[in-house]
Write a structure and sequence with these properties.
By secondary structure, the protein is an alpha/beta fold. The protein has twelve helices and 19 strands. It is globular, with a radius of gyration of 21 Å. The protein binds flavin-adenine dinucleotide (FAD).
């Protein structure tokens, strides 16, 4: 870091905003650029799940647990995020799913995740809105929820409120178009310079960082990469009207066991095949009740580009039927449907991507489906690695990119 005391951040999603918070914690002033009027990317399209339960054992779990702790701290001065330590329930409707959960609950790190395998009666005692038929559930007390549609403005309001500290300058409608040493030029021709520039440009793998990603062979689509590296994933989501009941936890179905590395236990192989529609859309049910009572329901996974520009109704039929089966009641009318895209690092073992694009300019992207969860800890690591002081027990930059 130099001596201007300023950090320039490009991208108003959760990664950029958490970098602003961590910069301010270090006494640095922040200029924060966002090309849209507000964050419009994955950070406002997600479930708002701070999801420790499914994280891979080791560095990924450690990062998520650190992030969970930071979220609780940050929510203390930004209550508008709607952070609540609600926990989650992953529900088993078949014996094979229950067997996977039993194994996961007996793993060495189950205590850190605050896992507990519950009987159907115990599941209903924790979350009485679950009135369907099931065999049990895995309770994860470490999981939490935030409100994605309001989290970014709530965090910015908290940043702006700290008037006694270093300044925070939010510049919406400002697209960064050119990189320089410790600076970026916006489309209006103004250069923004600081000790450090952090590009948190989300799933946009072309544009500002595109040439760097191509030149360094970081993209999964690069010749010879064999699909290993940064790629994009598209998900479908929906939101209902207000549900007549209160879900005390977030909820996942047994299909989620297939998607989260925490459940890579021997009995996973015994899970029966997913239904044809679920398999085709790589669906898992995740269900979160918003503070206004509505239900956010998803998701699906598409990996092959070009992505469809429209949403597929078969996948929604499947997800709605699964949600109704677990809740044991009809759902309210669907009010909104949307799709979102995130970037992730595939097949390398990395948790996310951080690289130096030019002197004093760092790109941070690719946290995949764990970006909302891990963002505060990822941002913290950017400053620790930039200052050359990786914390004990946290993955170093080399680990992250190996
Ligand atoms: C449907 C869906 C559900 C998900 N659910 C969860 C979940 O429940 N929990 C979880 O942990 N994760 C979840 N994720 C993943 C998580 O949302 C992402 O990993 C995270 O939001 C990525 O944040 P970001 O800031 O990198 O990207 P974004 O939110 O996409 O932000 C990038 C921002 O950069 C701006 N930008 C880009 N280029 C420029 C430029 N040149 N100049 C200025 N601005 C620029 C864009 O306009 C955008 O606002 C989900 C993702 C999706 C799509």
């Amino acid at each position: 870091m130099g001596d201007s005391g300023r950090v320039v951040i490009v991208g108003g999603g959760i990664l950029g905003t958490m970098h602003a918070i961590m910069a301010r914690r270090r006494g640095l002033s922040v200029v924060h650029l966002e090309r849209e009027a507000d964050g419009r990317g994955a950070s406002v399209r997600n479930f708002g799940l701070v999801w420790v339960s499914g994280r891979r054992a080791g560095a990924e779990l450690a990062l998520a647990l650190r992030a969970r702790q930071l979220w609780a701290e940050i929510a203390g001065f930004a209550p508008g995020t709607g952070f609540r330590p609600a926990g989650s329930l992953t529900i088993a409707t078949g014996e094979a799913e229950l067997a996977v959960m039993l194994e996961a609950a007996e793993l060495a790190d189950a205590k850190q995740r605050e896992f507990e395998l519950l009987s159907p009666g115990e599941v209903r005692a924790v979350n009485p809105a679950l009135r369907g038929e099931f065999l049990g559930g895995l309770y994860c007390r470490a999981d939490a929820i935030v409100e994605p549609r309001v989290t970014l403005p709530a965090l910015r309001a908290a940043l702006a409120a700290g008037s006694a500290g270093p300044s925070y300058e939010w510049r919406p409608g400002t697209e960064a178009v050119e990189l320089g040493d410790r600076g970026v030029r916006d489309s209006g021709g103004t250069w923004h310079r600081g000790d450090l520039v952090v590009l948190c440009t989300g799933a946009n793998l072309t544009g500002l960082a595109g040439a760097h990603l191509t030149a360094t062979g970081a993209l999964a689509s690069a010749p010879g990469a064999g699909g290993r590296g940064l790629r994009r994933v598209r998900l479908q989501m929906l939101q209902t009207l207000q549900f007549d009941g209160r879900l005390t936890t977030s909820v996942a179905d047994g299909d989620s066991l297939r998607y989260y590395p925490a459940y890579e236990v021997p009995s996973l192989e015994s899970l029966p095949a997913q239904s044809a529609i679920a398999a085709a859309s790589r669906a898992q049910l995740l269900l979160v009740q918003r503070l206004d009572g509505s239900l956010t329901i998803g998701d699906t996974h598409a990996y092959d580009e070009p992505f469809g520009f429209d949403v597929d109704e078969d996948a929604y039929d499947h997800l709605l039927a699964r949600a109704e089966a677990l809740l044991g009641t009809a759902l309210p009318r669907v009010q909104r449907r949307w799709a979102g895209v995130y970037s992730e690092v595939a097949g390398t073992g990395a948790i996310y991507h951080r690289s130096t694009v030019s002197p004093g300019v760092v790109l941070v992207t690719g946290p995949g489906g764990r970006g909302m969860t891990c963002s505060p800890a990822i941002a913290e690591e950017t400053f620790l690695t930039t200052e050359g002081q990786p914390t004990e027990g946290q993955p170093t930059e080399e680990t992250l990119q190996s």
